[in-house]
Q: What sequence folds into this?
């Protein structure tokens, strides 16, 4: 499996550690930067490239996932989610890493390099990479609603239960 990585200065140390860990565990790691510490760097430069790499691989049918890393992981997640076809989840525990894959079929995760010890974050990434999508009908349906909205801007219909109590429903 190919794993694309991008970060900012706050995630550089973890990204470099993950690169080694991934290779040691049989993954093909692709580093989109940064490559040197620069406290003034901008995470979109690197995270968008990592997300573009995942999207391009997946469009070609390749087995590819991605990880973006920052101080909190919030901005990096937002950047990755700007790329068409990417679903990037912010993970902060093993459970959120599992659910990102099982329920949301996330193609990327974002982790906060300043939020947890390196060992915990590596474990979150490992769990994400090894957890398959459940393919449960309700999750497929929900992802389909998101994909439809992305393509057309059309909101999914409200369920009947949401309309109860509204005048004229």
A:
């Amino acid at each position: 499996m190919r794993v694309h990585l991008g970060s900012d200065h706050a995630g550089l140390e973890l990204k470099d550690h993950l690169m080694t860990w991934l290779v040691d565990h049989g993954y093909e790691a692709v580093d989109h930067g940064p490559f040197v510490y620069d406290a003034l760097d901008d995470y979109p430069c690197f995270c968008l490239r990592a997300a573009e790499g995942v999207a391009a691989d997946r469009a070609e049918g390749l087995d590819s996932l991605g990880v973006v890393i920052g101080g909190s992981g919030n901005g990096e997640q937002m950047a990755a989610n700007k790329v068409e076809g990417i679903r990037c989840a912010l993970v902060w525990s093993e459970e959120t890493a599992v659910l990102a894959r099982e329920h949301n079929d996330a193609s990327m995760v974002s982790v906060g390099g300043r939020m947890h010890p390196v060992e915990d974050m590596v474990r979150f990434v490992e769990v994400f990479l090894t957890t398959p999508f459940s393919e449960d009908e309700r999750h497929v349906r929900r992802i389909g609603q998101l994909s439809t909205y992305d393509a057309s801007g059309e909101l999914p219909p409200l369920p009947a239960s949401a309309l109860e109590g509204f005048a004229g429903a």
